[in-house]
Each structure stands twice: as structure tokens, then as C-alpha cells.
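Sat 14:20. Reprocessing the chain from the morning session after the first attempt stalled halfway. Input below, unchanged.
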Amino acid sequence: MKCYYIRSFDGSTVLEPRDAPVPQPMRGEILVRVRAASLNRGEILAGIRLHRADVPQPAGGDCAGEVHSVGEGVAAFKPGDRVLGRARGSFAEYVAMSAEQAARVPPRLTWEQAAAIPIVSVTAYEILWRYGGLKPGETLLVAGAASGVGVVCVQAGKYLGATVIGVSRSAEKLGKLKRLGLDVSIQAPGSGFSDKVLQATAGKGAHLAANLIGGSAFPDCLRSLANQGRLAIVGYVDGKLKAEVDLEAVHGKRLHIFGLSNQLLSPAQRAEAMRGFARDLLPAFAEGRITPLVDRVFSFDELPAAKTYVESNAHLGKVVVRMP
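Finished this time. C-alpha cells:
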């Protein structure tokens, strides 16, 4: 089968096309015939130690497709089922996926829309539900609102009944997010937005902030928080992995700062997150209350070009590759 491997080289990542045997599903796994797969920024950032691939490894982290066969002990799925899920090596014609990482594709979604869901939406679930505890009537700040995770957070925040403030350097992207429900848009390069957040909240601040930008946005996210606010650290698209911490603000406001990464999770922890997403957030996609925002679709052979496009920061939402 056709597939891609990824490796880190000279401060960047390179995608290599390869031919490999079709994998066989092991116990607890399903073999998925991939119809579409999405690009996730964290997978192609060579500057983050946890994401570097010094030894070439199968590329891709999530996809959508049809169940081709099932391994021993799998009863929840059968051949022909339409599924979406997380799986290492999803940039391939076939991928073996843990059944615990799979969910059924809502009938209203195309393959490309379904492929745009898994990783960013499970991450958004953990930000808003599992760790962030966002409640109706609270205010959510999304720094990096035009990213894949950011777009889901904007829509999911509205789904939960929150007021959503989005930060992006692009006025055009913020305008499009307004049509998805964004309440307050702040155009900023990644810093210098806290005063506008406080102004928009009558000085109270945001109850939950998602920092999808990195170190440059951290001080402003911290200053933007309300008393007993929560701050999720999720991405580093600015390449800045360090920032100063205002300990007085953290101490005085009783702030809660937490990080989110899938790299070091155990299979049981990954399964728990997927179950929570399928229970609390996936129904919103099925009902049409949240729609995956696919910016552009490339063919599978154009995957390196798709990676270059993602690195250009021109996209809004998700970039997807379609299998032949």
C-alpha cells in the first residue's frame, strides 16, 4: 500500500512516500480503509522535543474511512462501518486503529469533514469539558482562534452556552469566525490583547483561556483571566516554548494552569478522552450544531504540498488529504 513516513531533519520535518504491507489488525484493533486524513500542526513541528521524529516513523494521526476487518475481541464495529478516529500512520491507504479510538461517522458528514474531526475535537473536549470545566454563562478566550483546535473551541464554546472571545492576527479569519458564532474578535499578533479582553468583560476577565499560540501569548492569557480562572496550554505555533509567569496573579487569583498533549498518554487515558468526546461533543456534529471547517482538500499525492500550506498559516480550520 501507499503511505508516508515523517522524519525530522535540520530543524524541520520531511514527509517521505513509501510502499508498505497492509497492516493486520491485532486484538482490540480495526483495520480502516482510509478515505481522508487531516494534517495536525503538532505532528510537523520539529522544534518541540516531544514531536521530533529523529528516526523515520509512520506519518499522520487521524483519519476517516471504512472498517475493512476487525481484530480479535472487537464487537463494537464490523466491516463496512464508517468510522473516524485517531491512529498513528493514518497517511496511508490502510491503518490499524484501536477500536477504543474509533467512533462512528455521523451520516450528515462527508469523508473530508469526518477526517477533520478527531484530534482537534478530542483536544477541544479536554480543554472545555474535562479539564477546563466551562459552564454556561462563562467567558471563553481562544488565543489562536483560527487554528484547527481554535475553530472547534469557538463552536463548542457556543454549544456550551459561553461567551467566546477569539484572538487572531488575521481580520479576515476573524470575520469568518464571527459567522460561526464568535462573540468578540480581537486582532492581535499573539500578544498585547489582554486589555481588550478585560474591556470586553467589563474588567472581570475570562473564566477559561485556551493558549493555542505559545509563549508569546502566555503573559496576555494570564492577565486576561478572571478570579479562579483556568488556562490551557496547547500549542506553540510561535515557536516560543518559554515565558515569564506572574506568580502574584496566579497566587492572588487562585489561577489553574494546565497543559494538554497526547504524546505521553497511556492507552487507557487516550480511550477515556475519546469516550468523553463521543459522549459530550460528537452529538453536536451529528445534530449539525457544529460543522467541521475544512479549509482546503489536497490529493494524497499532494501531501507534501499540503504540509507546506499548513506551515504558511494561510488556512482557517483544517487541511485534509483525500485518498484515491
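The first strand starts at residue 2 and ends at 9.
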